[in-house]
């Protein structure tokens, strides 16, 4: 590079630095003006922060990554709910079976207090509509 080219570059650099300085002054003046307008409108830094936060949250919610994550978590929640429901139903059934066995004995035969769950003989009882029927009667026959 010649001395003349170097001098041209120094001159251009000086002009660019002056433009940068001028632009910084203009920017500072515009920021001051914007601050004054915000003050007149009653916008505080906290209000502005809230607005920026709300806008940022809206941007996140509209992003594809957020939508995909939301869908995945929704499906996972539905599957978890179904699993707990199935588990609850199974527990309820098991408790019902235990209650049934307590009153009806292991073989499904009526268990009378103080009687073994397997009776030595089966007695037919009156029909279930009979008002005088024994609550421990069994009307099915096992063959």
TrEMBL record:
<comment type="similarity">
    <text>Belongs to the TPD52 family.</text>
</comment>
<feature type="coiled-coil region">
    <location>
        <begin position="6"/>
        <end position="40"/>
    </location>
</feature>
<keyword id="KW-0175">Coiled coil</keyword>
<protein>
    <recommendedName>
        <fullName>Tumor protein D52-like 2</fullName>
    </recommendedName>
</protein>
<dbReference type="InterPro" id="IPR007327">
    <property type="entry name" value="TPD52"/>
</dbReference>
<dbReference type="Pfam" id="PF04201">
    <property type="entry name" value="TPD52"/>
</dbReference>
């Amino acid at each position: 590079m010649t001395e003349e080219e170097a001098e041209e570059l120094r001159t251009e650099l000086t002009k660019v630095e002056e433009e940068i300085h001028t632009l910084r002054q203009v920017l500072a003046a515009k920021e001051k003006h914007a601050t004054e307008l915000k003050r007149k409108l009653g916008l505080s830094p906290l209000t502005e922060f809230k607005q920026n936060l709300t806008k940022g949250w809206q941007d996140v919610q509209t992003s594809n990554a957020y939508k995909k994550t939301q869908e995945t978590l929704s499906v996972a929640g539905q599957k978890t709910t179904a699993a707990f429901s199935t588990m609850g139903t199974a527990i309820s059934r098991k408790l019902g079976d235990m209650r049934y066995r307590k009153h009806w004995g292991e073989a499904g035969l009526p268990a009378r207090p103080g009687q073994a769950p397997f009776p030595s003989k089966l007695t037919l009882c009156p029909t279930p509509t009979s008002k005088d029927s024994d609550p421990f009667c069994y009307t099915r026959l096992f063959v």
